[in-house]
């Protein structure tokens, strides 16, 4: 199976803060338009303005800070793509609080090896602070070549957490359709085969950022090897 790697330079503009031009730190997203910034940058900006600095969408007429949320998924992506950034930021925090004789109230665990990994999954399970992504799941046109009675999903449209991974989606789909023995499925976006650890947020940024929602994913039947 062909794997499609994403170069940091290809998505650099999506993992940097437009206010400070640096990589995102404490990534924070405006829920009205989903643009993301460093927490310090956007909080400072919204003290004097109530609209998004990128698209001018009104965040909130009177209290814009009510409509921003921590974006842990995006921060995980940044740390995975720029590994040295996490250590540098933790060192900076430690020095800052050590100089003041205080403990860091926002101690962060190391970024996970598998973003969004979990053993059980439901598309309806998410935290209220999660970003939600509109998703459309379809059968790939190539499935017809197998001449199998592969039924489509009863539902095609979903609204789920941006932290959901391809692994979880495959598990969900395989629980809804009957796949013959010795067969499995791949998930594709824009005809690109997706890695099992890719999150919906990562897929959106990598393949769908300039397209209108919903994010369209297609499942493609394949024969197991061995």
From TrEMBL:
Domain of life: Eukaryota
InterPro entries: RAWUL, Znf_RING, Znf_RING/FYVE/PHD, Znf_RING_CS
One term under GO cellular component: PRC1 complex
Classification via PROSITE patterns: ZF_RING_1, ZF_RING_2
Domain RING-type as annotated: residue spans: 17-56
Keyword terms of this UniProt record: Metal-binding, Nucleus, Zinc, Zinc-finger
GO molecular function list: promoter-specific chromatin binding; zinc ion binding
Protein name (database record): RING-type domain-containing protein
Gene: 100640035
